[in-house]
Amino acid sequence: MDDLMLIAVVFTVLTVIGVPLFAAVGVTTILALYLIDIPYTLMAQTGYNSLTPFPLLTIPLFILAGRLMEVGGMANRLIGIATSLVGAYRGSLGLVTVFACMLFAALSGSGPATTAAIGSVTIPAMKREGYSTPFAAAIAASAGALGSLVPPSNLMIIYGLVSETSIPRLFLAGFVPGFFVTALLMVVTYIIARRRNFGGTGDPFNWAPFLRALWAGKWAIGAPVLILGGIYGGVFTPTEAASVAVVYALLVGTLVYGELTLAKVIESLRFTALMAGLLILLTPTLAFGQLSAFYDVPTAVENSITAITSSPIVVMMLIGVFYIIIGTFMESLAQIILFTSVFLPLVTQLGIDPVLFGVFTVMTCEIGFLTPPLGGNLNVGARISGATIEQISVAVLPFILAYIIGLLFVILIPDATLWLPNLVYGPSVQ
Question: For position 400, what pLDDT does the model report?
Answer without folding.
Answer: 94
